[in-house]
């Protein structure tokens, strides 16, 4: 009986440690089993999808996210499980209100003591502002390229006009 209570206390301690670690992260973080069911998520994850973290335990991406995104997330998970390697992804995330943001996601396989993949852990950071800045820079570069081309054409014409004028003056002399 005492051994059973100690094991229960150990499990509670492990669960407390998982929650403490997950909730200390400012980024979205989760732990899934091999079948894609959430074992634990942190507060930022719950906030991103509009649920309390404890409500998400046992759910899958298909229960939480729009179908297109959920299927994409599940495909990435399958790739991590098959390859047994960490994966970095830039992807969209849409909340229940329809707000779409960009996140940088790192998915990592979780192994048992025999080296078998038993789940996936993930962390995702909001990179929406960085993506917007990158897009603005891309637009600015494109506009500058157009301006350089226009200015080059103008300078080429001006040079041709100057050559003609110099030739005409040279011929008059």
Give a written overview of the molecule:
By secondary structure, this protein is α+β, with helices and mostly antiparallel strands. 58% of the residues lie in helices and 23% in strands. The protein contains six helices and five strands. It has helices spanning 2-24, 43-49, 53-56, 61-64, 67-83, 128-172, and strands spanning 28-33, 38-41, 87-94, 100-111, 117-126. It has a five-stranded antiparallel β-sheet with strand order 2-1-5-4-3, with helices on both faces. The longest helix has 45 residues, at 128-172. The N and C termini lie far apart (118 Å). 17% of the residues are buried.
The ordered string of helix (H) and strand (E) elements is HEEHHHHEEEH
The biggest beta sheet reads: 5 strands, antiparallel
Structural class, by secondary structure, is alpha+beta
Low-confidence stretches: none
Total E-strand runs? 5
The shape, in one word, is: elongated
Task: Give the end-to-end Cα distance, rounded to a whole number of Å.
Answer: 118 Å
Biggest sheet strand line-up: 2-1-5-4-3
Strand content: 15-25%
> Helical stretch count?
6
> Helical residue percent?
55-70%
Quaternary structure = single chain
Mean pLDDT: 85
Query: Nearest-angstrom radius of gyration?
Result: 28 Å
């Amino acid at each position: 009986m005492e051994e059973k209570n100690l094991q229960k206390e150990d499990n509670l301690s492990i669960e407390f440690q998982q929650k403490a670690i997950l909730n200390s992260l400012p980024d979205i973080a989760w732990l899934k089993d091999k079948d894609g069911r959430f074992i634990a998520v942190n507060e930022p994850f719950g906030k991103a999808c509009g649920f309390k973290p404890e409500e998400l335990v046992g759910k899958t991406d298909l229960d939480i996210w729009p179908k297109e995104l959920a299927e994409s997330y599940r495909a990435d998970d399958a790739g991590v499980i098959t390859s047994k390697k960490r994966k970095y992804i830039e992807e969209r995330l849409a909340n229940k209100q329809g707000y779409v943001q960009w996140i940088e996601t790192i998915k990592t396989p979780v192994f048992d003591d025999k080296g078998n993949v038993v789940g996936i852990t993930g962390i995702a950071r909001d990179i929406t502002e960085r993506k917007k800045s990158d897009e603005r820079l891309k637009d600015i570069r494109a506009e500058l390229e157009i301006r350089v081309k226009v200015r080059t054409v103008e300078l080429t014409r001006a040079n041709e006009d100057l050559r003609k004028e110099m030739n005409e003056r040279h011929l008059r002399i």
